[in-house]
Write a structure and sequence with these properties.
Elements lengths: L5 E2 L16 H18 L8 E7 H7 L1 H7 L10 E5 L9 H6 L9 E10 L12 H10 L4 E10 L4 E7 L7 E3 L4 H10 L2
């Protein structure tokens, strides 16, 4: 995706609130994902799937000084800081994996991330799940114990992968892990190959 889109905010990821046991590169990725989760979360729930390029903030400031100034970005930030740039025209069809398989980022994009929401039901409720896809979707949406979750998954060219997840029922808790959504991380990693 080569066209320039909108950057998320005037701040690049700084590592604030990021666990200290991570390497510098991992911490930069996690900080960018946390920024994305806050940004998308500020728009509430029921958001469409959103795709972001991750650029090194210092490279972005150097390559696009006018944009960097408009966004309040500075090359004086932490080493390795990443700035998310939303790909406003990304509108995947029904299959996110297929949509990601058609993307090949240019070398100037250091990483990428996707934010998506899903609904799931407890495993004991899956016993009654219809086999028909449409009926199954209706069953899940109508189930009284369904849970809505927002996941933010990102990868970079150094091989770092990380995911964050927030349940609508537990808005103050953020789940995190390198292998939180491995299939989605793998699909994203292929866009950087």
């Amino acid at each position: 995706m080569e066209d320039k889109e909108s950057a998320v905010s005037g701040e690049s990821s700084t590592g604030r609130d990021v666990p200290q046991e991570l390497s510098e590169g991992e911490a930069a990725l996690v900080a960018a994902l946390m920024e994305l989760e806050r940004h998308v979360g500020s728009d509430g729930w029921d958001q469409p799937i959103r795709l972001f390029a991750l650029a090194h903030t210092t490279d972005l400031v150097r390559a696009e000084p006018a944009l960097a100034e408009q966004l309040g970005l500075s090359a004086d930030g932490p080493d390795g800081a990443l700035t998310p740039i939303e790909q406003d025209h990304f509108a995947p069809d029904a299959d996110l994996a297929e949509a990601l398989a058609r993307i090949e980022w240019p070398p100037t994009v250091y990483g990428c991330a996707v934010v998506t929401e899903r609904t799931f039901i407890p495993s004991d409720a899956e016993i009654d799940l219809p086999t028909d896809e449409v009926a199954a979707a209706q069953y899940v949406q109508a189930h009284p114990r369904r849970e809505d979750i927002r996941v933010v998954v990102g990868v970079d060219r150094a091989g770092h992968r990380h995911g964050l997840a927030r349940l609508v029922s537990q808005p103050d808790e953020l789940l995190a892990g390198a292998e939180l959504v491995p299939g989605l991380a793998e699909a994203l990693a292929h866009t950087l190959a």
